[in-house]
Amino acid sequence: MTALLTILRAGPLMSVQDDGRYGFRARGVSTSGAMDRDAHAIANALVGNDADAAAIEFALTGGAFTADRNTLIAVTGGSCQVEIAGRRISTWESHLLKSGETLTVGALRGAVWGYIAMSGGIAIPKMLGSRSTHLRTAVGGLNGKALSAGDILPLGDSEKRAPRTLGTPYLRGHGPISIMPGPQDDYFDEDAWKTFLRQPYRTTTARDRMAMVLDGPVLQAFKGHDIVSDATVVGSIQVPGSGKPIVLTADGQTTGGYPKIATVASFDLARLAQLPAGQQFLFRAISADLAEEQTIHADDRLAAVIAGLRTSEG
Questions:
Q1: Which of 58, 59, 148, 258 is the most buried (most CB within 10 A)?
Q2: CA end-to-end span of the chain, whole Å?
Q3: Degrees (nearest 5) of the Cα angle 110, 54, 34?
Q4: pLDDT digits 0-9 by tens, 80-96
Q5: pLDDT band at 178 (very low <50, low <70, confident <90, very high)
Q6: For residues 151-175, b (16+ Cβ closer than 10 Å) or e, as one string?
Q7: What is the pTM of this model?
Q8: What CA–CA distance (Å, rounded) separates 141 from 15?
Q9: 103 by DSSP, 3-state: which?
């Protein structure tokens, strides 16, 4: 008999996400997947799942849940108050949620995107090779929609495992967000580039899974702010007529008609996405070769973190 997870209360933009939907961008299908893939992978590892298992993603505030079987749960992404049956538990650890008990997940501190993984993962059917939800096109997930109170999710089979915790805290570095110029970097003159790389920008509340609008110095494209629509990637930084950069994220469209001054390096995109509204930061330009090296380093670090998980007391 399939075990079920019931959502008693749901926070904003709560959805089912795995590691993404690949191979379909040429057909206009966005990648989707977790906004913070490291936090998602660690949550899955803590409960004994494969890194690509489906979990619950939420923005800013979690919710309340109950399951009809004993299951390990883990909450990652940032710090927040988490309780099982009124008992306070820690984030970035797995804990046993007994059948019928209520899990409550509060508001994130110092982060935007949180993850709740359950042992066995969320066992909804795959669509185009992924269980991830693309909200704007209602593809994947639970009927293609954001999760809400009363929704019921099936859980996959899992082996009995002891709760686990990180061997060392998972911390991200500080400093400028790395970008690679292009593909329309030549639409912006030297003054625009000096502004882009030397003046700070701020995250805003104008954000969702598709994109985030930045506040700061206006960027003028001397060749104009309209181009023949061409391909975008996750991390593309478009500059529309307003001059305010727009960073495309997990659910970003696959083509666009604004010039793209740069692309956020993949290893830094989650760090940018997790910056709370109003956070100030700088960009720095790096080469594609350095971006590849840093991505490999980031992947190795994540693998080492997961390999270092240890059995916890709880």
A1: 58
A2: 28
A3: 40
A4: 999 999 999 999 999 99
A5: very high
A6: bebebbebeeeebbbbeeeeeeeee
A7: 0.96
A8: 7
A9: strand
